[in-house]
Amino acid sequence: MTDQATKPANHLIEIKEYGQSIWMDNLTRDMIQSGELKQLIENGGICGITSNPAIFEKAIKGNAIYDADIEAGIKAELPTYQIYESLIFDDIRHACDILRPVYEASNGLDGYVSIEVPPTIADDTEATIKEAKRYYQEIGRENVMIKIPGTKAGLPAVEQVIAEGINVNVTLLFSVESYVETAWAYIRGLEKRVSEGKDISNIASVASFFLSRIDSNIDQRIDDKLAQGIDDISLQAKLEAVKGKVAIANAKIAYQKYKEIFSSDRWQALAEKGGKIQRLLWASTSTKDPKYSDVMYVDELIGPDTVNTLPPNTIEACADHCNVDNRIETDLEEAYKLIESLKNPEINIDINEVMDELLVEGIDKFVKPFESLMQSLEEKVKYLSPV
């Protein structure tokens, strides 16, 4: 019989024992000021924070908690964009300070807060480098991580920003190939820094590999095929068998690439100089289809040297009923077979096309809330401005 006194009260804390860190995909000023964030970090198993424009839109839009700072910005005659930055930079600094003990206790493994450069510059390398450097300097916290999308323009920026000693969270990775390119961009950035005789031991990076959006896209394609009417029962079964399985299979294959890259001689040379591995971070982990387990993107991808970033609803669900075990390398052969089966003429789903589509959509899902937030802030500035 299990001794209830020794059983973790929260499965998120249990996950840490398997070498995975749980970060929260959410940040609001309410959480900071109420002490909820501190509580989640001290007792709830949370050891990092990720944010994005959609999160800030939800946090700021229609929330009076920011009004005093907006009014201060109006009095200082700041443009709306600078008021926006003053609000989010303030929240990021406070979150970094709350997570500082985690950062120190983990020797810089955890305790990070991620903030994304403006999504409107995702295709501009130079602008991304400039903004990443400015964000890092203005926020002024060692444990801030600058989020840069893993686009063709983003990866050269990742390399340069790492070379300048800035922590980077590479976001919007969908394909295994884009992950591999990201890992090498990180390595090249560290190598450049070493060649300049600079320290690399205090630089951290994660590669944010997205999950649920892949299944949503592929499941929709399968549903469209099934809706056309299929007489062959075995073909119908083959199509149904793919649903809800591709994202996890894809992530498991990415993890194998991670192991390969970070056991290479090229990496070992950096590790000897204090280089920290770039961990894979599982993102987009809330289940979109109610038919699936609400913790499937947690349970199936627990394993060493990984991070899983969870929105609040998934945090609650996982704390309650995650089935914790090291599964990152289970069913590998099936994972490869499943991805290969998509090429089968009967299934005929081009995974590269899916990934390209998701990257474009992903940027759009950050640009739209960013623009919406700017518009609502503009309206609030007008409303709060003295006549």
From TrEMBL:
It is found in: Cytoplasm. It catalyses: D-sedoheptulose 7-phosphate + D-glyceraldehyde 3-phosphate = D-erythrose 4-phosphate + beta-D-fructose 6-phosphate. Its EC number is 2.2.1.2. Keywords: Cytoplasm, Pentose shunt, Schiff base, Transferase. The active site is at 147 (schiff-base intermediate with substrate). SUPFAM superfamilies: Aldolase. The keyword Calcium does not apply. GO terms for molecular function: transaldolase activity. Pathway: Carbohydrate degradation; pentose phosphate pathway; D-glyceraldehyde 3-phosphate and beta-D-fructose 6-phosphate from D-ribose 5-phosphate and D-xylulose 5-phosphate (non-oxidative stage): step 2/3. It comes from the Bacteria. PANTHER family: TRANSALDOLASE. Belongs to the transaldolase family. Type 2 subfamily. Transaldolase is important for the balance of metabolites in the pentose-phosphate pathway. This is Transaldolase. The lineage of its organism: Bacteria, Bacillati, Cyanobacteriota, Cyanophyceae, Oscillatoriophycideae.
